[in-house]
Amino acid sequence: MKRIAINILLLLVLAVLPAFAAPDGLRERLAALEGVSGIERLESDHYAEKYLIRVTQRVDPKDPAAGTFTQRVIVGHAGYDRPTVIVTEGYGAAYALNSRYREELTDLLDANLVFVEHRYFLESTPEPCDWDYLTAENSAYDLHRVRDLFRALYPGKWLSTGISKGGQTAMIYRAFFPDDVDASVPYVAPLCRAVEDGRHEPFLRKVGTRRERKAVEAFQLEILKRKAEMLPLLEAYAERKGLRFRVPLAEALDYCVLEYSFALWQWGTSTRRIPPLTSDDATLFDHLVAISDPAYFAEDQPNISFFVQAARELGYYGYDTRPFREYLSIADARGYLSRLMLPRELVGKVAFSPALYEKVYDFLKDNDPRMIFIYGEIDPWSAAMVPRFRGKKNERVFVQPRGSHLARVGNMPEETRAEIIEQLREWGF
Length: 429
Prior knowledge:
It contains 14 helices and 9 strands. It has helices at residues 2-21, 26-31, 104-109, 136-150, 165-176, 200-204, 210-225, 227-241, 249-266, 281-291, 304-314, 336-341, 355-366, 414-426; strands at residues 36-41, 49-58, 68-77, 84-88, 112-116, 158-163, 183-187, 371-376, 395-400. It is 39% helix and 14% strand. The radius of gyration is 25 Å and the shape is globular. The longest helix has 20 residues, at 2-21. Strands 1-2-3-5-4-6-7-8-9 form a 9-stranded mixed β-sheet, with helices on both faces. Keywords: Aminopeptidase, Hydrolase, Protease, Signal.
C-alpha cells in the first residue's frame, strides 16, 4: 500500500513538472518573450484573453547607441492554432484598450490580435523626443521586431492591417519587409506624392452631386461673409477649449472654412445637416466646429507627430482658395501645414522627400503581394488611392459606393463583402 501511495505521488509530481519546466499560460509565454515588460491583463468582451504589454525597441534600429524606448502592444488571444492579425496603428493605441474593442478582421477570421501603437504617439514616445528618428522605415522595423517576437507564439498565417494612417503604415511595412506577413488589408490608406499632393482639390470639385457641392460651398461662403460675427464666437470657443493659434483668429477661421469641405466628405456627413443659411450666427458656428474643429489648427495637439511625418515623407493635401478669395484674410494657403501645425522647432526646417512614395509605388508595381485595399467613394483621401497596375493577380482594390473614411469590409455591399472574405479564404485564412 505504501509503495502504491509513493508511486501515485511520483506520478502527480511528474504531471506537475511540465508546468514549471516551460511556460504554458499566455501570460507566462508573453513574459518569456525577449524585451517584454509591464504585462497587464485587460478585460475583453471578445477575446479569450487580452493583455497590454510593453516591448523594448531601439530608437534607431540600426544603431544601439541611440538608446531604447518602450512600445505599447495589445494582444488579443483566439488560439495558438489561429491566424494572427497585426494592426499597424498609425497613431495611439488607447482606444484598443477598451473591453468592447474588436478589430474587424480578427472577428471575420477568428484570429489573434497583435495591436502595435505607432512610435512617437502617446506612451510609445521616446525620451528625449528626437524627431530625427520618427521615420517610416523605423516604424517598419518596430513592426518587424514585434512580428519576430510573436512568431513562435503564433506560427500560423499572419495578416497586417490598419486604418487611414495605419493603412499607410501597413503598406510601408510590407514594402520594407515583404515576407513578414502572408497578406495585408489597408483601409482607406492614401499614397501621397507631395506635402500638398494636388489630387484632393480636383476630387472635391467633383465629389457627390452638383447640388451637394453647391450646398457645401454656400455654407463656407456664408461663414466667411459673417466673419465679423464669427470671430467673437471663435475666440470664446478657443478660450473654453484652451486652444492657442500661431496665426490671428481671422486666419484660423479661414482654415476652418477651407477644411470644412474635406472633413464633411471624409466622414460622410450628409449635406442635409447643413443649417439654413438664414440661421443665426451661433447655429452656423456650431455646425462649422462640429465638422471642422478649430483644434485641428491649434498648437500642441496630440497628433503633432503625424504632422511631422506628413511634412517629411507621408504627404498631405492642399486647399483650393479660389472660390473664397474675396473673403479670406490669408493671401494663400500654401505651406499651411508647416506654418500652423509642426512643432515650433521644426517650422521652416522640414523638407518633403518623395523617396517613401517611390519605394511603396515601386514595390506595388514590381511585385504582386497579396493585398486588399478598401476605400470609400466620397472620401477625399481616395483621391490618393494606390495605383491599379495591369496584370496583377493578388492586388485587389474595393471602393464602397458612397463610402467615406469609415469604409470597412463589414459595410461593403453584400456581394463585395463575400468576395473579400472568399479571397482571404483562398489565401489560407
